[in-house]
Amino acid sequence: MAAVPRRRSYYEVAGIDLLAETGRLRGLPVFAAGPLAAAEPELKVRRASRRPNRLGFAVPGEFRLSVTAYPGIRPGDVLETLLHELVHLHVGRSREARAWHGRAFKLALAEAMVQAYGIAGVRPRNVLHGTYAEAIERRRLTGGTQLALRLAA
After folding, report:
1. What does the alpha-carbon distance between residue 11 and residue 21 come to, in Å, rounded to a whole number?
2. For the chain, which end, N or C, has fewer CB atoms within 10 Å of the first or last residue's CB respectively?
């Protein structure tokens, strides 16, 4: 069944054009030898009335991902969630002790953060979203190196 065409505004969250950003992120060297280099995943945006427990998810077997928009979401939150879910599509489920957030996932996410947003040296205490988002927000708000973001018009 073909995907339903959506208006471009459907993909805008916190001023970020998720379709454009997904296209840019797919071109990162960390994804060059994986499925993201060959095809665009299906992207859905969920809308919630408050901050959910699950900010996004990926289904590697169906090559799709979802990002949740909620009141007060910041660009850093959106960017971290999107990249996190793209890494899931790239790495998939591994045979490690932590099948979804094991060593391979963490290493790929760290490398993707460096390549995408220049965020290095961040050591998240867990796999919950937030640590990288804070680093992205600090960099964005302090006028550090300009992030290569394609913001929605």
Report:
1. 10
2. N
Asked if residue 3 is part of any domain, the answer here is no
* Rounded average pLDDT over 47-74: 94
**82: containing domain:** 8-141
Structure tokens at 51: 């901050």
Q: How many angstroms separate the CA atoms of 121 and 135, rounded?
A: 10
SS3 67: strand
Q: What is the pLDDT of residue 153?
A: 46
Give backbone dihedrals phi and psi of 69, rounded to 5 degrees, phi first. Answer: -95, 140
Q: What is the CATH number of the domain that holds 49?
A: 3.30.2010.10
pTM: 0.85
Q: How many domains does the chain have?
A: 1
